[in-house]
Amino acid sequence: MTSFLRSVIPDWIRRxxxxxxxxxxxxxxxxxxxxxxxxxxxxPVSRNWGEERGRPLDRYYINRFLENHAAxxxxxxxxxxxxxxxxxxxxxNVTQSDILHVTEGxxxxxxxxxxxxxxxxxxxxxxxxxxxxxxxxxxxxRAAVQTTHRLLKPGGVxxxxxxxxxxxxxxxxxxxxxxxCWSFTALSMRKLFQESFGPSQVHVEAHGNVLTSxxxxxxxxxEDLAPHELDADDRDxxxxxxxxxxxxxxA
Length: 251
What we know:
By secondary structure, this protein is α/β, with parallel strands linked by helices. It folds into two domains: 35 residues, no CATH class; 203 residues, Rossmann fold, CATH 3.40.50. The protein is 28% helix and 19% strand. The chain has a seven-stranded mixed beta sheet, with helices on both faces. Helix 5 crosses helix 6.
């Protein structure tokens, strides 16, 4: 019956037949009436985070989080992979910038180490550690957080982000897909960091909503969505999780 109605009733009439809820919002459409348009596909629009279209959606939340905590990016700063955020967010407040790589070969790397086991790095070296989209690649993630705590000076801050709802990319040059171990929730990140830093020293944010999550899985970019769509956060759809954790001054 539903397929018959869809075939004989014009779209504009069917849209009017869908009941509206409070504040003008549409109620749940009947089964079979959802129109996916160009998004009804088995292949994503992009398998590379939407970079061919513009800025990846998760980077919108990562950039905003780091900019909101720019005051923490100061002194001696460690960043994983490169120091793009250290230079852009910290600027003149950074006195020394270090770059950590897990393997040798990058001429810009100042430290070669696995965060899950790095006894050769001295304690309390850094005022800030920027750890974006890294922990999902480390199997012993608890040990990595403990190392992060150890490397910070008393009062130092780690700014970390991790994926929540995500696809796993096997096509990038760093072969992340072969190393990807985890996706996280706000709760799991809170528990992980509280174990090392203490409950009062950890602040966790979850960003994203059903639209940005679906868009991210399909490979859409920031430029495909409106600002109000990007800025709406729904804790049931955690696309990206961000953590600010500060080492106790008495530690």
